[in-house]
Amino acid sequence: MRHARPGAVIVAAALACFATGSASAACPSDEAIDAFVADWRAGTPAKAIAVDGTMEDALCAQGKVVERLQADLGPPVGYKAALTSPPVQERFGVDQPVRGVLLEGMLLQNGATVPAHFGARPVLEADLLVVVADAVVNAASTLQEVLQHVREVVPFIELADLVLAEGEPINGAVLTAINAGARRGVLGEPIAVEQSDAFLRSLAEMEVTMTDDGGNELAMAKGSAVLGHPLNSVLWLVESGVTLAPGDYVSVGSLGPLLPTAPGLTATATYRGLPGDPKVTVSFE
C-alpha cells in the first residue's frame, strides 16, 4: 500500500531548505548537481558534492537532487533518518543523524527481485517505516505522543546506494547532499499501531534478524539500536526542521549493519516481537 499525498504539498516541504540555502555561496552549482544526478542515474560512482559546505548548503544540494530525481521516481512520499546508530555514525565520522527524502518509485513490494548492482555502491540493511497518522505528530515531544499520531509500522529492507567513488570524502554534509543514500527499499505488510505501553516497548525490544535463503544469520539488532527507540527518529526529524503530514513514511534508520549485495542472494528480515513476527524479503539477480 502506498501513502503518497498531493505532490505540491510534500515537494514544498522537501525543497524548503533549497530556497533557504540557494543564497549560500557554498550551495553546489546546477552543473555539479547535474553531473551527480547523471552518475546516479547511470549507477556509476560519483564525485562528492557540498564537501566543505554547511548543513544548510547540503540541504540546498539535496533539494536540487530530489527535484531532478522526481522525473525518474515520482513525488516525495516521506523521509529517511540515516546514521541513527553509534557504529554507523562512527563509520562515517559523524555524531548525529542525517536525513533524506523518499520518492514514490523507490518503494518496492515484498518479495521484489532487483539487480545485485542496483547502484554505484549498493548495500542493504534492515529498517522500519513509520506511517504518520496526522500532522499533530509535529508537536510531539515524547515517544508516547509520537505513537498517538502514528497509524502503522512497516517492516522495510532499505536498498541504499553510497554512490560516491572510492576516495571521495564522506561526512555529514556530503551524505545529506546525496540524499542520505536513498535509492530503493522493499516494503513488508503494514502493522496497525496499538496505543499501548506494551506496543511502545515492543518497538525497542524487537529483535530484527537478517538471514540468507539458507537460514544463515547475516545480522541482528534490537529496535533500540536506532537512537534508543525507533520513534526517536520521528522526534529527531521534526526537531531538524521537517514537517510531517498524514500518510508520510518515515524510515527510522539502520537496524543492524550495512550488508553487501550479491547475485543469487535472497535476504529476509524478521521482526521478532512485533505482532506475528513479520518478515520482508528481497532477492538479487
Structure description:
This protein is α+β, with helices and mostly antiparallel strands and 285 residues long. The protein has 9 helices and 14 strands. The chain has helices at 7-14, 16-21, 30-42, 55-73, 86-92, 143-148, 172-177, 197-205, 232-239, and strands at residues 76-82, 98-103, 107-109, 113-114, 122-132, 150-161, 184-187, 191-192, 207-211, 217-222, 249-251, 259-260, 266-272, 279-284. Strands 1, 2, 3, 5, 6, 7, 8, 11 and 12 form a 9-stranded mixed sheet that branches. The model is unreliable at 1-25 (pLDDT under 50).
Provide the descriptors you would attach to this structure in a database record.
alpha+beta, 9-stranded mixed β-sheet, disordered N terminus
Could you list the spans in which at least 5 consecutive residues all have pLDDT below 50? 1-25
Helix-strand pattern: HHHHEHEEEEHEHEEHEEHEEEE
* Helical coverage, percent range: 25-40%
Taking all Cα atoms into account, the compactness measure Rg is: 18 Å
Look at the helices and sheets and give the structural class: alpha+beta
Give the overall average pLDDT.
Answer: 92
The counted number of beta strands is: 14
Percentage beta strand:
25-35%
Distance between the termini: 25 Å
- Largest sheet, described in full? 9 strands, mixed
- Gross morphology: globular
**Helix segment tally:** 9
Layout: helices, strands, pairs:
Elements: H1 7-14, H2 16-21, H3 30-42, H4 55-73, E1 76-82, H5 86-92, E2 98-103, E3 107-109, E4 113-114, E5 122-132, H6 143-148, E6 150-161, H7 172-177, E7 184-187, E8 191-192, H8 197-205, E9 207-211, E10 217-222, H9 232-239, E11 249-251, E12 259-260, E13 266-272, E14 279-284
